[in-house]
Amino acid sequence: MTDTSTSYAAASENRPGPVVARTREELRAARGALPGSDVAVVMTMGALHDGHATLIHEARKRAQHVVVTIFLNPLQFGPKEDLSRYPRTFDDDMVICAREGVDLVFHPTPDVVYLDGDPGVRISAGPLGDVLEGQSRPGHFDGMLTVVSKLMHLTRGTSFYYGQKDAQQLLLIRRMVRDLDFGVEVVSVPTVRESDGLAMSSRNTYLTESDRETAVSLSRALAAGAAAATEGPSAVRRAARAVLVAEPLALVDYLVLVHPDTLQDVPEWYRGEALLAVAARVGTTRLIDNQPLVLGPGGGPLDVFPPRPLDS
Ligand SMILES: Nc1ncnc2c1ncn2[C@@H]1O[C@H](COP(=O)(O)OP(=O)(O)OP(=O)(O)O)[C@@H](O)[C@H]1O
Ligand SMILES: [Mg+2]
């Protein structure tokens, strides 16, 4: 088994660094060596940032053990997407994992995850996977859910932590776990932002300095929309759109105010929880962001949607 605990040890704290498993056998051995049954898992594609660190931190607070997966999943990238240029920063990722007290890092290559090449059988996201991100990225959510289910099984985790930044992904994972009876816990973590509001993302490293100035208009639009939440749907949409219209360098793919369970546009009479979501291309980079909110009297922004009874 590859145990790189000495090289990645959290130097200032007297605890061993994460064990790194690259094969199924190494994972089985390292996972088997974790005592108890309370294992939280954070799935990532690497190029870790403070958003990932926060997911790990939340997992660490609540669970006995934390497993991080670092796997750039080819199945969820379209043929014209950025798989080949996606940042790969494994050594820096391990520094973050060591600092956050991760027990085990699973870092497989595609041939380890997909033993026979492309899997013939895949998870289908269904209609919720065809809208918003799914409309721009055909097949993306089937590929995402397929790897998420495989990693759930391989890691044998009991709770799984996902970021609100990827709201549609989070919804689909919750639905898969519920609809297909996975019997594990899914935990949502609020979006972590730069000081000016930009949602952290591994893809932010693609942004040039001027792209970076344009990119902040996405979170500004969401904040403007959320500030109008007491006035109802059209006021929210109008306020958000006004910010984006003033920034023509952000090429908007969609800006929607939808029901958080159905991802359908909410009608004007609707009051309650809603999701304001945006996707735009800035330079060569496609960015997404969203803001959960409550519409109506006393309404306003939420960090994440409170768990609904069906989640338990
Ligand atoms: N800013 C953020 N705040 C909270 N969670 C985040 C944030 N960014 C990513 N995550 C979460 O981290 C997990 C792994 O995401 P991933 O590795 O795709 O990183 P990413 O920053 O979303 O990268 P990319 O933008 O290239 O997709 C997901 O659950 C994702 O929602
Ligand atoms: Mg992502």
TrEMBL record:
Protein residues bound to ATP: 45-52, 163-166, 192, 200-203
Protein name, per record: Pantothenate synthetase
InterPro entries named among the record's database cross-references: Pantoate_ligase, Pantoate_ligase_C, Rossmann-like_a/b/a_fold
EC supergroup of this enzyme: ligase
Stored HAMAP family: PanC (MF_00158)
PANTHER family in alphabetical order: CYTIDYLATE KINASE/PANTOATE-BETA-ALANINE LIGASE, PANTOATE--BETA-ALANINE LIGASE
Active site: H52 (proton donor)
Binding site for (R)-pantoate: Q76, Q169
Note: The reaction proceeds by a bi uni uni bi ping pong mechanism.
EC number: 6.3.2.1
Subunit structure: Homodimer.
Family: Belongs to the pantothenate synthetase family.
Keywords from the UniProt entry: ATP-binding, Cytoplasm, Ligase, Nucleotide-binding, Pantothenate biosynthesis
Chemical reaction(s) catalysed: (R)-pantoate + beta-alanine + ATP = (R)-pantothenate + AMP + diphosphate + H(+)
Pathway participation: Cofactor biosynthesis; (R)-pantothenate biosynthesis; (R)-pantothenate from (R)-pantoate and beta-alanine: step 1/1
NCBIfam families assigned to the protein according to its UniProt record, in alphabetical order: panC
GO cellular component, one term: cytosol
Organism field: Nostocoides japonicum T1-X7
Chief localization: cytoplasm
